[in-house]
Amino acid sequence: MDTCCVSAAPRQIPLSVTHPLQPLTPDEIRAVATIVRKDPPYGADTRFETIELMEPDKATVRAFSSGAPIARKARVNVFSAAAVTVTSLVVCLDTQTILTRKDFPGKRPMIQLEQFLSIEGIVRTDPEFIAACAKRGITDMETVCVDPWSAGNFGVPGEEGRHLCHIFCWLRLRENENFYAHPIEGLNAVVDLITGKVIRVDDYGVVPVPMQEVNYESQFIETFQPTAKPIDVVQQEGVNFAFDGHRITWRNWSLVVGFNAREALTLHDIRFDGRPIVNRASIVEMTVPYGSPDNGHFRKNVFDIGEYGIGKLANSLKLGCDCLGVIKYLDVHLNTMDGDPWTIEKAICIHEEDSGLLWKHMDFRTERSEIRRGAKLVVSTICTVGNYEYGLYWYLFLDGTIEHEVKATGIINTAACIPGQPPKYGREVAPGVVGHIHQHILCARLDMAVDGDANSVVECNTYAEPLGPANPYGNAFFEQQTVLGRESEATRRADPASHRYWKVINPNKTNYTGAPVGYKLEANHCVTPFVHPDSPSGKRAAFVQNHVWVTAFDPEERFPAGDFVNHSDGAGGLIEFVAKNRPIENTDIVLWHVFGLHHPVRVEDFPVQPCVFTGFKLMPSGFFDRNPAINLPPVVNTASCPA
User: Which of 52, 153, 396, 574 has the CA that lies 20 to 30 A from 297?
Assistant: First the structure.
């Protein structure tokens, strides 16, 4: 049990806090900042990167009963506005004290949301940048749009020891029109986020700015398709899920929904019929490497989660547009650089959907049919990272399947070329407008708990039996299962030739056939990385070199590219975790799955890309004794049947 926060006069827990894993409330964020400000690590220069719940240990969560006291702690990252350094703190809200402090000189915080627009102002007023724009015939700097990209770590002279941002720019011809149709090619600036000044302007030469408008806002669309008849989602009897704070119960399922500035959605204590499956699930990194070495584009290798914090970029969702049906929304509460709470209303959407045919059989002799339709619980958020939108969806199904799906939409990042002469590293999507080939590679951290914490990972490969006495007709093939014993054995890549997959089993629990209960990772969206592993970007994103990693559970091993990703050198991530070579058999383990999108851009991806999809599933594999949805009652949807 967590007792380090117990005091003689404990703080009054807000009535809205009903579970140990519930994210911090605005009052708690404010209280944490007040505690830190009593002795700020950097005095008046102290700024807050993140204030988030310090999640209690598993034993504390499992021992919790409704109405019991809840100890509350917070993780806090603060940084200096005057130097390159970060300090990590653990704050006890009950005793109003700082429990631990670790200083990380030379490390950088995530780029803060408040800095985005200030970077644009800094660049627009720089004399050298203004002069470079004038060479291109651009004199009204208010029409120049600047996107702040992380700078990476490329050993460029003059960039050592700084906290930097590298920018790309476009031209907006009139109010609200799509400026990504007008890239200002070959012009970049590097901004020092400490001094607030441009330290260098890179001018690779003038390419004419494409001036044809390619718009997406409805005000610019002259002719619309005929209005379609609505497809309404109506649940006149209400929904099948219930809330207790952030804890949800739905049909056979229960879970706790969390959220933080870096990861966005986190799911906790996922259970089916009370049986644990996953202790914690989240997407912990996404790197987006672009394939062009031309001009400044070689620096495009952003880490959307570790360098920006995708949770801070969550949208406030709109009923009837982002979400359809009978919806339950949750607000999320984060912090500003000054430590004040700020709220994104309706950032999390929870609803249920029909998922189509679940199972069916017709006995052809009697023509008797049994049919069951499926349903799924949807927990989602949508985040805007500059030009791209990422819809992050978690689904729970009636057959025990858990699915994560990413819907990528928004506007492709654009460059310019001479019309009709696109470079080999991209495709022309409008006259003179290029979309470069790129990838979106994500990493899920799955703290597994299949019927308990003592789990193992089994790799499964299918092989053909060689022709011979054991296979005289050439039709024999079989599956071979291998238990991965140590971390060094569990750095694995997909192999379509053997239909390789992995499952997490509990060797101490068996189903009614006597086999260990388990869950299969259905990894259908593995990506081959093309960034060289020894390159600057390849070293920083070393986790992409494998599709599956397995580590012994450590609550401080949270991020595959390290805790501090801005300007990182590749240290502190999965490579170092697995170098410990700990045993991972019949113990508490974390399954890391790397997946994503390979994106050679299409013309149809512009001006706004239709959703493309990636993700993975966790499917029961011997977890149940039979189809867990076999006992669903037969129901006919009367609303679909005319009277």
Answer: 574
pTM of the model: 0.96
CA–CA dist 310, 526 (Å, integer):
22
Separation between Cα atoms, residue 249 and residue 235, nearest integer Å: 18
Instruction: Report yes or no: 179 and 172 within 8 Å, Cβ to Cβ.
Output: yes
513-555 pLDDT, tens digit per residue, is 999 999 999 999 999 999 999 999 999 999 999 999 999 999 9
Name the range with the highest mean pLDDT among 5-14, 221-230, 313-322, 609-618.
609-618
**Residue 587 corresponds to which tokens in the numbers above?**
């113990």
Task: State the Cα–Cα distance between residues 410 and 390, nearest whole angstrom.
Answer: 8
250 alpha-carbon distance from chain centroid: 24
Report cis status (omega within 30 of 0) of the bond before 634: no
> DSSP states of 62-103 as a string?
HH--TTS----EEEEEEEESSSSEEEEEEEETTTTEEEEEEE
Contacts of 216 (CB under 8 A, 6+ apart): 178, 411, 607, 608
Query: Taking Cα atoms as reference points, which of 565, 558, 577 lies closest to residue 537?
Result: 565
Q: Is 353 helix (H, G, I), strand (E, B) or coil?
A: strand
Task: Tell me the pLDDT tens digit for each residue of 506-520.
Answer: 999 999 999 999 999
Q: How far apart are CA 608 and CA 432, in angstroms?
A: 17
pLDDT of residue 12: 56
Catalytic residue numbers read 304, 388
Look at residue 575 and give its three-state secondary structure.
Answer: helix
